[in-house]
Design goal:
The chain is an alpha/beta fold. About 40% of the residues lie in helices and about 20% in strands. It has 14 helices and 13 strands.
Length: about 375
Amino acid sequence: MQLSADRSQPRLFIGLMSGTSLDGVDAVLTSYTGEQVSQTACYFLPYPEELKQQLLALHTPAQNELHAAAVVANQLAELYAQAVNQLLTLAGTPADAVTAIGCHGQTIRHCPTLANGMAYTIQLGNLARLAELTGITVIGDFRSRDIAAGGQGAPLVPAFHQAVFASANTHRVVINIGGIANLSDLPANGPVTGFDSGPGNLLMDAWTRQHTGQPYDAGGRWAASGKVNQALLNTLIADPYFALATPKSTGRDLFNDNWLMQALAQHADSAQNVARTLLELTAISITEALTRFCPGVQEIYVCGGGAHNLALIDRLQALSEMQVQLTDQLGVGVDWVEAVAFAWLAQRCVDHLPGNLAAVTGAAGPRILGAIYPN
């Protein structure tokens, strides 16, 4: 495979995304001709429950965690390869037709604000092993170069949102509601910005799993049966992260079960009421961020797993007093936006083009992102 392939000819890239929700691997096959991208096929491979628990355990310090992380990275490579092979079979496409795989990896630490050059981010996944298993060049570790340049390393998707979803005439905001919610502000005129607004699904999903045994609250129906605990909500929304200026990014390092339990120690309530309050926290933190950082927005589009939570979408519409639309209407399905974004980042790396937006991450400037594991 030659990384300097002719950009005038169609090229195939695969994007792999496994996000904070820990639900599984999103895999997409995309075709690029110049700057034009089209989605060819998609496949989802759920995480085994044992792997989910291993990944959750790695979010906190533990004995022999380096060994555990290396073992899980190998397991992830096997799972990523399985997803790639299933995707190619579904598409009827041979591996040697693919230019590269863009693999985000599984984040287990994200500490972008440590002082004195000590900031770091860790996404697990043995990418060398993935290249061996698939016979395809793999590009990953997209965040580290941005952090080395003084940025937060996240969110990276606003650059992709700008390339694919921006309008020359309309001020749009794209809200990705995964485990963490992030916003991309795409004005018709002016600089693009983006940031993590706070928790998306991760707290709601964890609470639902604990109290109902279900992996998530389908449609938000369970949460909708409860009532907002205003005292609990006030305590949660008072976290200093929500008041921070941009650029900012976050993850399970901050918003986790312990964070929630500290607040519940003061404001215990029924399981349904807590579920409803967590939904309100996500809705309010997003809409307050819209008001503060995205003035003049004319259209709102949502993607990610949260797009299926109808109760959450209803609250976003009520609080923002705007219609909330889905990215399907812009040509990319809500479940596949981030995976397509990492195929796009792989293409940018191959073409020696920057993949970050300094105004979003706070980096010293545009940087080519990704480490390459050639086939």
